[in-house]
Amino acid sequence: MAEPKRYTQKGNFFCLPNDIFERDLNHIEIIMLAFLVSKARKNNQCYPSRATIAKKCKIKTLQTVDRYLKSLEEKHYIHKMYRFNHDEKLQLSNIYTIEKLEYEGRDLRDL
Questions:
Q1: For the stretch 36-52, what's the b/e string if a residue is b when 16 or more beta carbons lie within 10 angstroms of its beta carbon?
Q2: Residue 47 pLDDT exceeds 70
Q3: Percentage of residues of the chain with pLDDT beyond 90
Q4: Is 103 helix (H, G, I), strand (E, B) or coil?
Q5: What angle do CA 31, 105, 57 make, to 5 degrees?
Q6: pTM for the full predicted model
């Protein structure tokens, strides 16, 4: 089975659509989405901790991170899944799946 196409590219860069600044996102959501896309690997998933997201995106509180992650999920840019250790007693960092990002009706992974 072929590996799924990813938003991340070979090398030290990643793709976002040119119209990202015209979408229904504010500046914090754009920064957070860009960070998550930059960390996405197989299946367009990443699992940074909320603290890492806050640090890398220069956000002061975890509550602010939570608010904007929820907004990105409500706008269907990401999907969040809770992740637990093997005995399901300890929650680990969440898994964030980058939802379909399109430009002019085409999925970025197909460009």
A1: bbbbbeeebbbbbebee
A2: yes
A3: 49
A4: strand
A5: 5
A6: 0.81
